[in-house]
Predict the 3D structure of the following.
Amino acid sequence: MSDTTNDVRNAPDADADGYDVVIVGAGAAGLSAALVLGRARRRVAVVDAGAPRNAPAAHVHGFLSRDGMSPADLLAVGRAEVAGYGVDLFECRVDQIDPGFLVRLDGGAVLKARRVVVATGLRDELPAIPGVRERWGRDVLFCPYCHAYEVRDRPIAVLGTHPGAVRHALLLRQWSSDVVFFAHTLDLDAGEREQLAARDIVVADGTVKRVVVEADQVRGVELAGGHVFPRGAVFVVPEMVPRDTLLTGLGCERDPNDWVSTDDAGRTSVSGVWAVGNVTDTKALVIIAAGQGAAAAFALDHDLAAEDVERAVDNHRTSTSTRTRHSTPRPIPQVAIRD
């Protein structure tokens, strides 16, 4: 447990006032939301189980002023920053969120919130090809904008394990003149083969047997027939599955692609529930996720402020009415009338 992390045994009782906002997930999106809300002097808790999606990667790229920083260091700096504004950090898992925003943590503690932000991300389901999972995030990669520059000009492989793999290969041609597309289980049509040929991308038909790894480095891709194509990096499009159980448990609506839908500020269809980052957006790079977290926090604070004003007006009216009912009438002064 880090110096900035609280023991869940010291969490405030759910019968107490609780938090303005509980954020589930301490990646870039969740911590960015916490930073803005902490600076807005809101009482905020962030709960995270400590398994970030980008943990296998050595560096974060494309994040202005943080390019090349390790994911672990980025999150450590973020946690320290939000803790400096009084945000409580809990290292544990959220089992469920009950109506009324009672956030139940594993181990039994319950946090009470006025609003919740879910920033739990997604998981990458990888093809069952030997070598893929073992090298994932190192030299078996997905995002060109995160990793392709680091393997530029190397012999690159793209595995045809996903319907979007052809488009991926065409895009990766920007970083290397030596790209081989392994059809694997995909049945390429004539148009796709023409596009690949036009970009000087070689198509290797046949099932992929394994990613060849030697001396702790990818060396090639082997087909079932035994032929090995020497390669320096392999790109795979994973099946992305949102970690949205908490959101669906609250009744949040889904979009036509079966992902939880939000507006531009992260509001879901359930009042008081917000969702940001990869849990709703597969294209949210680290810097985009951070921006989504900040945007949600801006809108969320306005939402809380409107509720604060409404409560204050109601209390003011009640207080004024009570004083009026219980005040002693002042005697009417007697004025002498002369004839």
Remarks:
- The first strand starts at residue 5 and ends at 6.
